[in-house]
Amino acid sequence: MTTALFDTWTDTYDRWFETPTGRLVRKYESTLLLEFLKPRPGERILDVGCGTGIFTQEVLDCGAIVTGIDLSVPMLKKAFIRMGNASFTGLCADMSALPFPSNSFDKVFSMTAIEFVADARRAIAELDRVTRKGGRIVVTTLNSLSPWAQQRQQKARNGHALFQKIHFRSPGDMCSIVPERSVIKTAIHFQNNDSVACIPEIERSGSKKGLNTGAFLAVQWDKA
Question: Can you tell me the distance from the alpha carbon of 18 to that of 36, in angstroms, rounded to the nearest whole number?
């Protein structure tokens, strides 16, 4: 099952973000997340699919009070170790059936988790439900228009167990399942095998052109 697959990826996931390319991916993804989410001190924020807490930490550093959920116990344990922070709490839960009352959080975000959910519309409805009126939701996913997704699809065809569970979606796909008042942007316009020295310029160019083919697809809206 998918949960067990995540359990075995805990260390691999963290190690990848420590590679030269991985550190740049983290930088650009964090920048777009914070641009869209705009976390403020004291806000109650839910991190859906927090994993080992790599991006959770960025939000905590802004002074927010964060609750993280994840399907994987080993990943959640790593998040607790990483945070060591009284402003972070976490529990195992499914993003399609969140264990919180409606209007519980000021803001909600989910980093590259919804691609592991077949019924994305249901998950989006849950994120919206637990957000207070006027609160903000940010969802990110792997963009099906990106060569990164195409490479993962090839690995899935070759038997890669985790990538076989992914539902890749395009900007148009995401627009069809979120409220009409949403904003969409992509990042990570470079490729995994691009020279690290060239990556900043590639990313600047892709962002300036407003390309919709970046591997990291982010959508943001405020709850009506």
Answer: 24
Look at residues 53, 86, 87 and name the one whose alpha carbon lies nearest to residue 69: 53
* Phi, psi dihedral angles at 9 (to 5 degrees): -100, 0
Quick: pLDDT tens for 60-73. 999 999 999 999 99
Query: What would the two tokens of residue 28 be?
Result: 């650009």
CATH of the domain at 15: 3.40.50.150
What are phi and psi for residue 164, nearest 5 degrees? -70, -15
In the block, which residue shows the tokens 């994993």?
51
SS3 state at 121: helix
- Comparing 166 with 27, the larger pLDDT belongs to 27
pTM across the whole model? 0.93
Alpha helix segments (H runs only) across 41-146:
56-60, 73-83, 120-129
Structural domain including 80 reads 2-222
Provide the number of structural domains found in the chain. 1
Is the pLDDT at 102 greater than 50, yes or no?
yes
Residues near 160 by Cβ (< 8 Å), separated by ≥ 6?
Answer: 152
> In this model, does residue 84 exceed pLDDT 80?
yes
**How large is the greatest C-alpha to C-alpha distance in the chain, in angstroms?**
47
